[in-house]
Amino acid sequence: MKTKSPLLTKSKYLTGLQCPRLIWIQIHDPGKIPETDPVTQHIFDQGHLVGDLAKKLFPDGLDLSTENFMGNISKTKLLLKNRVPLFEPGILVNNLYSRLDILIPAGENDWDIFEVKASTAVKEVNLNDVAFQRHCCIRAGLTIKKCYLILINNKYVRNGDIDPKGLFTINDVTAEVEEASEGIHDQIENIQDVMGRETCPEMLIGPHCRDPYDCALTDCWDCLPEHNVFSLYYSGKKALAMYNAGIITIGEIPDSYKLNDQQLIQKACVLSGKPHINKADIRHFLSNLEYPLYFFDFETIAPAVPLFDGVRPYQNVPFQYSLHVVRSEDAKPEHHSFLAETAGDPRPALLHNLRSVIGDKGAILAYNKGFEEGILKDMAIVFPEHSGWLEQVCNRLVDLLVPFKSFAYYHPAQNGSASLKAVLPAITGNGYKDLDINNGQIASILYLSAIYGDMPETEKTKLMNDLEKYCGRDTEGMIWIVEKLRELAHI
Question: Are strands 293-301 and 317-326 parallel, antiparallel or unpaired?
Fold first, then answer.
């Protein structure tokens, strides 16, 4: 007698497509799956918000989202007979289960599927998602005419209340979904077979570990030693090819392999255990720094649904800055900062405050200056009264990333990264480990929770203090880096 296939949901189907080992552990050993981290939870929350707004595109829809599992399924069956637009209907057939975002009657007998995503472009995983929904519907006896993806329109600019018709684009992906549906029956059977096995399947590491999502499991990578080929600077597919060829560490890469200049420097540093220092290039960079020096950093929020007028979806809006000023080579740093502590557009007050502390001459250093520059240019459009001054500020920006991106300085401890988080501890011995907030994404999410959520006042007070420390560390750390570069270049 054939064993009954395990229940396969839409999310498990997508997991099974990505990695058989992950879906097996999810079913048989879920304790190995880490708890949802704040960044992932924020993505989920954004998705729920976007989904609710998309329902406003269909004002006659009936919402089944509050029903429990079996209640949702039974009510869906009943309402399908009435041929009304349904929000989050549940389809259960032959141990396949899918809860759709939106199901709309089309003509006399057909239906259209609308899947809502908080992204701005069609992705392969979205097509597989809708393909599974379509398969469940067809198995349940429905005729699916069209499939659509409702996506975020990144050109939409908020002006007053959110306009759902402006916020979203509706994309006909029927042909692409049909293509993604080829062989879906076999794929479902394979995934259910894996789910029903007694032993976990073995999997080699590869692109699937991060595509379409970062895998929740990290133990597959634990066997890799320090300075493995996957930490090679901008290695791309080259790292996997080397790994599959038996080359595990950067030091083992044969001279016959073509590496670029930065990768060759990284390999030499791994072999020697010492940093690479190009004093001439460092001196050239430092010689162009005009005092007073302003060390500058923004922290931003970038929600899918813009909170303020004049803002696009996912546009970075600054709520905080840190500015350390060094007036002369021997002067002690001065620190200035701004942190918006109430709801509302933080930019007018931030701009007024910033303008009072940045003088009209001297280099303004930012790490990866394109980020700060983009934010400043966005504000110049929305606040034209500041546009001339903001243009001058942009013209004075100097990118502290330059000597590290070019590998004028590289330390083995950077592990192939030129980011501030990697460079600061490598070159100075000081980093972010002593801080309660040590990540920009976390800073943004916690800030949103404090200002627009229900965070208790005591937690909010501590958070604001932690945010000041975190943003301040970025700019103070840049001072330490410049001082260390001067020391290394004997200036």
Answer: antiparallel
Per-residue tokens: 453: 């959520």
Rounded Cα–Cα distance for residues 262 and 404 (Å): 10
Radius of gyration of the chain (CA): 27
Q: How many angstroms separate the CA atoms of 119 and 213, rounded?
A: 14
Please check whether residue 141 lies inside any domain of the structure.
Answer: yes
Interaxial angle between packed helices 10-18 and 20-28, expressed in degrees from 0 to 180 and rounded to the nearest 10: 130
Question: In degrees rounded to 5, what are phi and psi of residue 372?
Answer: -65, -40
29 and 104 within one domain = yes
Residue-wise pLDDT for 168-184, tens only, equals: 999 999 999 999 999 99
- Of 192, 217, 26, which Cα lies nearest the Cα of 94? 192
Tell me the CA distances in angstroms from 106 to 85, 109, 110, 361, 481, one per residue in order.
Answer: 10, 7, 5, 64, 63
> What is the mean pLDDT of the segment spanning 437-458?
95
- Work out the pLDDT band at 6, boundaries 50, 70, 90: confident
Last residue of a domain, which of 148, 177, 196?
196
Q: Is 477 helix (H, G, I), strand (E, B) or coil?
A: helix
Same domain, 47 and 167: yes
Range of the domain at 292: 280-488
For residue 140, the one-letter residue type is: A
pTM: 0.93
Helices 457-488 and 279-287 pack at an angle, to 10 degrees, of: 120
Q: State whether 67 and 89 are in the same domain.
A: yes
Within 13 Å and on the Cβ side, how many CA atoms surround 304? 24
CA angle 197, 201, 204 (to 5 degrees): 165
C-alpha pair distances (Å), 235 with each of 241, 250, 312, 322: 10, 11, 33, 34
Q: Are strands 276-277 and 409-410 parallel, antiparallel or unpaired?
A: antiparallel
* Six-digit token string for 8: 């396969």
